[in-house]
């Protein structure tokens, strides 16, 4: 084994897939978070939080053994394996099933903003730490609930500044119905192929018939005529029920009159295997990965001991910010600079400005103060507000108004 | 404004990929001779020439809407793209091969094999399925050299005619995967772009015409 000796030090780097965030980036993210949480609150969703760490078992139990490869894990002091949460649906299902629902609350509307972690492949360029915001509507299995979360997703896209995004809606039951008409072995093979989204390999798996035709055309079963075309191929009762459900959901969404385009996509397959009904994703005008995604997962809560239907979605916050091109409106501070002996007067001015809500830094007069909204120069006999090439002579009493005027022009 | 960006792989699939673009009506004849990696065609169509190992990154990230990639790469990299159509050229197989005189030794129980390959994930999956221990040596090319000089017991590599194997006195022991060129599509492009849907439909029509011709021939 070659031991690394000094030289190329690792301490100046951060690990792959995580990054530092500048004030601009944090301001943009916090701004979006606040707007999203405000929308969630107006729709009756209350913000909750769960731990960043959970037992590995919780995620395996909720999302299946396949999720293990995608988790960042730690060994606890007692030897138990912990994992950093890769998403919030499983933790919230655990929380709701073990605590909220037994206490008699239902339905519950939960909202969150959370850092999540995934063990992405090295070199894939994907982040291992990122932020998700989202909602879960737990305890309501009616189609109105599906309509509600999709309509909320549409509103969220508008609020985030990506009103040109497209929401695709599919239904896990359509494919389940189609696969149920195949021999078990072929269905299993098809599931595996679909998990890889290798549509090109599908036609060879099924014997000729409507199921094969449905699988062959699956990726093209999208857009206005998709439901009609799929109706002719719907093998199995579950497929037909899925198409009816989608029709009803589309009608419901129509009533919300959102600007965001909503289209059917029966080839939509979500990554996590707990989805059971209506599923959806939103894509922006650029970029390959969905901005948000979610759907119905009626079986998940039962895995945690309290059966309840549920639906919800998660937004990729960083992707959303990228897509919207939002810059943070970072508030540059006002600088109070003081001449010798004027420190007490400067502190007085500073306190008053801070009470009025301004961000203020205070420093002795010296060259080099930059990136401020305006300067307040305090000397023993004079108070001067300087913004750009403009100077406003002011009094102690009027300094707040003068700063407001100057800052208003500068911003 | 680019209406449609298409990634084609450099190397063994490039010529066929360009012929395919021409067959569906794009003026792509000169793309192959052009040394530029980014070529704009009439009608807002942009062609990216990417290394086969990198191509899926461009499509996954949405910097290309569609691309042509070997199934071997798709299986190896497991990227989040839609693999929509089998283009039926670039036929080849990924095989496990070893020196002729060691073919028997290879399957002796209890023996931990050392295998050299450009396809570590594909190789690992194969040996996991066969419940065999394996040690993988990742090389970036000319893997046939490794068993001849004792770096590995065998190789996993693509074969088309089998000539390279023969000339290096290697013998195929097992087939690991069959590969052809595939049309891959970015997940987002598929739902937002009419040009992408139209391009895919044109290729589909071309493929079914071709299929009919081969049945009648």
Task: Describe the protein's topology.
The complex is a heterodimer of chains A (411) and B (217).
Chain A: H1 23-42, E1 46-47, E2 53-55, H2 56-63, E3 73-75, E4 81-84, H3 89-100, E5 108-117, E6 129-138, H4 143-159, E7 166-171, H5 172-180, H6 184-195, H7 210-217, H8 226-233, H9 237-254, E8 261-264, E9 278-283, E10 292-296, H10 300-303, E11 310-316, H11 317-324, E12 334-338, H12 343-355, E13 360-364, E14 374-379, E15 382-387, E16 390-393, H13 399-410
Parallel strand pairs in A: 1-5, 7-8, 12-13, 12-14
Antiparallel strand pairs in A: 2-4, 3-4, 5-6, 6-11, 7-9, 9-10, 10-11, 14-15, 15-16
Chain B: E1 4-9, H1 14-23, E2 38-41, E3 45-50, H2 52-61, E4 66-70, H3 71-77, E5 82-86, E6 92-99, E7 113-117, H4 120-129, E8 134-138, H5 145-148, E9 154-159, H6 163-167, E10 170-179, E11 181-185, H7 187-192, H8 194-216
Parallel strand pairs in B: 1-3, 1-4, 7-8, 7-9
Antiparallel strand pairs in B: 2-3, 4-11, 5-11, 6-9, 6-10
Q: Strand-residue fraction of chain B?
A: 25-35%
Query: Largest interface: which pair?
Result: A-B, 25 and 26 residues
Count up the helices of chain A. 13
Q: Helices and strands of chain B: which structural class?
A: alpha/beta
Q: What is the straight-line distance between the termini of chain B?
A: 43 Å
Spans of chain B of at least 5 consecutive residues whose pLDDT stays below 50 are: none
In angstroms, what is the radius of gyration of chain B?
19 Å
Structural class of chain A: alpha+beta
Strand order in the largest sheet of chain B:
2-3-1-4-11-5
Give the helix level of chain A as a range of percent.
25-40%
> How many strands, what sense, and barrel or not for the largest sheet of chain A?
8 strands, mixed
In terms of DSSP E residues, the strand content of chain A is: 15-25%
Mean pLDDT score of chain A: 89
User: CA-to-CA gap between the ends of chain A?
Assistant: 58 Å
Mean pLDDT of chain B: 90
**How does the overall form of chain A come out from the CA principal axes?**
elongated
Q: What's the oligomerization state?
A: heterodimer
Q: How many runs of DSSP E, i.e. beta strands of chain B?
A: 11
Gyration radius of chain A, in Å: 27 Å
Tally of alpha and pi helices of chain B: 8
Largest sheet of chain B: 6 strands, mixed
């Amino acid at each position: 084994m070659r031991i690394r000796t000094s030289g190329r030090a690792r301490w100046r780097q951060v690990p792959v897939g995580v990054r530092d965030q500048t004030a601009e980036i944090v301001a943009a993210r916090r701004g979006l978070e606040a707007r999203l949480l405000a929308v969630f609150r107006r729709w009756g969703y209350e913000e909750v939080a769960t731990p960043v760490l959970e037992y590995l078992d919780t995620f395996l139990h909720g999302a299946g053994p396949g999720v293990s490869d995608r988790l960042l894990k730690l060994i606890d002091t007692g030897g138990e394996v912990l994992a950093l949460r890769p998403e919030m649906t499983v933790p919230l299902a655990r929380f709701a099933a073990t605590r909220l629902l037994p206490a008699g609350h239902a339905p519950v509307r939960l909202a969150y903003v959370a850092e999540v972690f995934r063990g992405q492949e090295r070199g894939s360029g994907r982040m291992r730490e990122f932020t998700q915001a989202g909602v879960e509507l737990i305890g309501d299995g009616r189609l109105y609930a599906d309509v509600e979360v999709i309509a909320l997703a549409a509103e969220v896209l508008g609020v985030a500044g990506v009103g040109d995004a497209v929401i695709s809606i599919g239904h896990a039951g359509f494919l389940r119905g189609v696969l149920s008409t195949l021999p078990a072995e072929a269905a299993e093979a098809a599931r595996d192929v679909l998990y890889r989204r290798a549509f090109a390999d599908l036609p060879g798996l099924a014997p000729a018939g409507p199921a094969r035709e449905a699988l062959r055309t699956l990726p093209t079963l999208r857009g206005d005529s998709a439901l009609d075309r799929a109706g002719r191929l719907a093998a199995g009762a579950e497929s037909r029920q899925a198409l009816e459900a989608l029709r009803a959901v589309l009608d419901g969404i129509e009533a919300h009159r959102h600007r965001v385009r909503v289209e059917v996509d029966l080839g939509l397959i979500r990554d996590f295997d707990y989805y059971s009904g209506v599923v959806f994703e939103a894509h922006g005008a650029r970029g390959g990965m969905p901005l948000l995604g979610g759907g119905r997962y009626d079986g998940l809560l039962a895995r945690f001991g309290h059966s309840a239907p549920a639906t919800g979605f998660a937004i990729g916050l960083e992707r959303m910010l990228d897509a919207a091109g939002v810059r943070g409106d970072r508030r540059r501070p006002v600088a109070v600079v003081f001449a010798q002996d004027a420190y007490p007067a400067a502190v007085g001015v500073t306190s008053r400005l801070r009470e009025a809500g301004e961000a203020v830094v205070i420093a002795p007069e010296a060259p080099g103060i930059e990136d401020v909204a305006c300067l307040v120069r305090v000397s023993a006999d004079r108070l001067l507000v300087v913004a750009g090439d403009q100077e406003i002579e002011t009094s102690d009493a009027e300094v707040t108004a003068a700063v407001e005027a100057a800052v208003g022009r500068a911003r | 404004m680019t209406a449609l960006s298409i990634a084609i792989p450099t190397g063994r699939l490039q010529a066929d990929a360009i012929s395919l673009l021409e067959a569906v009506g794009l003026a792509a004849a000169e793309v192959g001779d052009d040394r530029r990696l980014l070529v704009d065609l009439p009608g807002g169509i942009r062609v990216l020439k990417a290394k086969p190992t990198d191509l899926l990154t461009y499509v996954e990230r949405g910097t290309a809407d569609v691309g042509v990639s070997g199934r071997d790469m798709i299986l190896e990299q497991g990227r989040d793209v839609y693999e929509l159509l089998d283009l039926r050229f670039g036929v080849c197989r990924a095989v496990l091969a070893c020196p002729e005189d060691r073919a028997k030794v290879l399957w002796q129980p209890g023996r931990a094999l050392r295998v050299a390959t450009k396809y570590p994930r594909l190789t690992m999956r194969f040996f996991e399925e066969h419940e065999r221990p394996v040690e993988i040596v990742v090389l970036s090319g000319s893997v046939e050299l490794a068993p001849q000089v004792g770096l590995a017991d065998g190789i996993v590599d693509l074969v088309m005619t089998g000539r390279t194997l023969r000339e290096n006195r290697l013998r195929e022991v097992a087939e690991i995967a069959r590969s052809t060129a595939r049309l891959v599509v970015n997940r987002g492009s598929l739902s937002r772009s009419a040009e992408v849907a139209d391009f895919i439909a044109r290729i589909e029509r071309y493929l079914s015409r071709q299929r009919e011709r081969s049945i009648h021939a």
